[in-house]
Amino acid sequence: MGAYILRRLLLMIPTLVGIMAISFLVVQFAPGGPVEQIIAQIQGQDTGDRLSGGGSDVLSQGGGEESRYRGAQGLDPEFIKKLEQQFGFDKPPLTRFLDMMWNYIRFDFGESFFRNTSVIGLIGEKLPVSISLGFWILVVSYLISIPLGIRKAVKDGSTFDVWTSGIIIIGYAVPSFLFGILLIVLFAGGSFFDWFPLRGLVSDNFSELSWWEKIVDYFWHLTLPLIALSLSAFATTTLLTKNSFIDEIKKQYVVTARAKGLNERQVLYGHVFRNAMLIVIAGFPGAFISAFFTGSLLIENIFSLDGLGRLSYLAVVNRDYPIVFGTLYIFSLIGLIVALISDLIYTWIDPRIDFERRDV
After folding, report:
1. Are 186 and 169 in contact (CB under 8 A)?
2. Contact 252, 267 (CB under 8 A)
3. What is the CA radius of gyration of the chain?
4. Taking each helix axis from N to C terminus, what angle separates 93-105 and 2-28, rounded to the nearest 10 degrees?
5. Closest alpha carbon to 51 in 37, 70, 39, 61
6. Of the segments 4-8, 50-54, 88-92, which one has the largest average pLDDT value?
7. Contact (CB, 8 A) for 241 and 150
8. What is the mean pLDDT of residues 221-239?
9. Burial class (CB within 10 angstroms; exposed 0-12, middle 13-18, buried 19+) of 190
10. Mean pLDDT across the chain, nearest whole number?
């Protein structure tokens, strides 16, 4: 097992480099980069405040020759060169990529182009929201889905199974953001009730509350986003658990266990459970990454929760490359580590699995 873990850790290096290289080629050369963003601001084409905090210290204008940047006609070429130096575009692409990877290996992600703060500081600021959403989504969905999936497998074809399947399919078909809007209309000051808050993870007076009031306030703010986000994860995990248990229940070792006089609970949780749960565990890394980093973008915007999903989205829109690549690097690294942990959990649930005897 030690050799397998070492191989997996070593394979993370080329995997990370490949992910970052492909993303660099796609994103770095896309139109509308940071230099063009500043040019658009100067020309009065962008009156928003999304570029505040950086880049403005080199703003100057003047006549000049034709530039390779869209909308730069009439600007001094020396000014354009200063912009390129400020954003690091005065270096060849390969040099920029190698410098970036060297810094990322040391977990030095630099500073945001358009915010006067470090990328690590921004991620640390937004992380509590994403952790709150991701952790509780996983807990709620797995605590409900696994027992429900087992029950549906045991009662396969019954009225209970049919009705719950219908509800699950409807829940899965409804987009989480649409259900979130419905919850707001119904329970957050829309057309009906005003029972839940619509903004933030905690109340403005959170620091003044007692410890138990803080807990209540925290979950009060999380209730509607969690309900909206849990639908798809809940449906997928439930059906996956049910189908996995049905496949295992039909196997010969289950018939043998029942013939030995074991009751249904002993058969299900003593023999079937560890085999059936392998496929559920296999989907855990994807569910983990989705819940923490990708699945909550629209929900964060709808409920005004300033988390990592919204941060990454705004960074892509504004071409804030340090944030784009910094968050991508961290997400990819966490995903690879979680995938390795998932394999190790395999061996804990079923000791018969031996990764040393198979190719990586």
Report:
1. no
2. no
3. 26
4. 140
5. 37
6. 4-8
7. yes
8. 82
9. middle
10. 77
Residue type, 340: L
How far apart, in whole angstroms, are the C-alpha atoms of residue 86 and residue 73? Answer: 20
Tokens of 49: 């405040």
Q: Is the pLDDT of residue 229 over 60?
A: yes
SS3 sequence of the chain: CHHHHHHHHHHHHHHHHHHHHHHHHHHHCCCCCHHHHHHHHHCCCCCCCCCCCCCHHHCCCCCCCCCCCCCCCCCCHHHHHHHHHHHCCCCCHHHHHHHHHHHHHCCCCCECCCCCCEHHHHHHHHHHHHHHHHHHHHHHHHHHHHHHHHHHHHCCCCHHHHHHHHHHHHHHHCCHHHHHHHHHHHHECCCCCECCCCCCCCCCCHHHCCHHHHHHHHHHHHHHHHHHHHHHHHHHHHHHHHHHHHHHHCCHHHHHHHHCCCCHHHHHHHHHHHHHHHHHHHCHHHHHHHHHHHCCHHHHHHCCCCCHHHHHHHHHHCCCHHHHHHHHHHHHHHHHHHHHHHHHHHHHHCCCCCHHHCCC
Distances (CA, A) of 80 to 45, 50, 87, 201, 204: 17, 20, 11, 42, 44
Q: Packing angle between helix 321-349 and helix 273-282, nearest 10 degrees?
A: 170
CATH architecture of 120-317: Orthogonal Bundle (1.10)
Of the candidates 93, 91, 61, the residue with the CA atom closest to the CA atom of residue 78: 61
Bridge partners, residue 126, by sequence? none
Q: What is the pTM of this model?
A: 0.71
Residue whose entry in the numeric block shows the structure tokens 């699950």: 168
Q: Give the rounded percent of residues in the chain with a pLDDT score beyond 90.
A: 4
pLDDT digits over 160-203, tens only? Answer: 989 988 888 887 788 888 888 888 888 887 678 888 887 778 88
Place of tokens 């006089």: 261
Written as six digits, the tokens of 298 are: 């629209």
